[in-house]
Amino acid sequence: MSLNQLVISREVLLNVVIAKIAQQLKWRKVAMVWYIASASIVIVGSTCAAVIAGFEHSTYAAIFAGAAAIFASAEKGLLLGDRWKFHLKMLMRYEGVKLEIESRQGNADLNDLLSEVRQIMEDYADGVPISPEAIRPISEHPV
Q1: Domain extent for 63
Q2: Cβ–Cβ under 8 Å, residues 93 and 118
């Protein structure tokens, strides 16, 4: 049976979309929290390093500067800001499909919406932001 011949009920498709919305809400929130936390630590750490260095406490200044550098690198390496935007985009696409499902009466033909959900899922699998370093073949990674 091909995708074009598949008959799906409104409730089943709506439940799938609602589950996908919940998933996107969770990951959007996780990415947002980590992005904001890392950005805040970078700002506070670098500010503290500058102020403490002014008081000639170089050891403590170096610790704060190091922490700021680690969190800045982690945020850039994990692409937390990009992931936050990506999950928001996916969430909005699922919300649009949900509205379309809810606006249709009874079990009207939903194959176009099923195709849209499938496309969103494929875009999600293909589009999650990943650092270019992560997708290089293992043989190309420095030892």
Answers
A1: 3-140
A2: no
DSSP state for residue 135 in the 8-state scheme: G
* Chain centroid, CA 39 distance in Å: 16
- 3-state DSSP call for residue 22? helix
CA atoms within 13 A on the CB side of 51: 7
pLDDT tens track for 13-25? 999 999 999 999 9
> Tens of pLDDT along 80-110?
999 999 999 999 999 999 999 999 877 677 8
Q: What does the alpha-carbon distance between residue 7 and residue 25 come to, in Å, rounded to a whole number?
A: 28
Assess contact for 16 and 117: CB atoms under 8 A: yes
Looking up tokens 């008959």, which residue turns up? 7
- Per the structure, the count of domains in the chain is 1
User: Any idea what DSSP says for residue 136?
Assistant: S
